[in-house]
Design goal:
Length: 103
């Protein structure tokens, strides 16, 4: 299993919208994430900054599985309205890399 950290940023003034929309994700998206190998996905927000921690069997495979998934495509379109930089699924590498951990 992989643990992946991600960072995204909300458009200014969209914080409440993001919180409201993420209060409950669609059941189809939940099922798609689990089928793609996601065990856990947690998101913290500090102002407009979003920090994700994803536990997944294989991050690249998960991204490939979800790129055109009918449950994920409309969700990503909705997120694109909220995020400063939308995720176009062009890259499979997370932008945040581990530099230290407490042994």
């Amino acid at each position: 299993m992989e643990t992946v950290a991600l960072h995204t940023r909300l458009r200014e003034g969209r914080e409440a919208d993001y919180d409201r929309i993420h209060a409950t994700i669609p059941a189809e998206l939940d099922e798609a994430l689990r089928e793609a190998g996601v065990w856990s996905w947690r998101i913290w927000r500090s102002g407009r900054e979003l920090f994700h921690l994803v536990e997944v069997d294989d991050y690249r495979a998960m991204r490939a599985c979800l790129a055109e998934h009918p449950a994920n495509v409309p969700w990503q379109a909705q997120m694109a309205e909220l995020l400063e930089v939308e995720d176009d699924y062009s890259g499979a590498e997370p932008a945040v890399r581990l530099v230290w951990e407490l042994p």
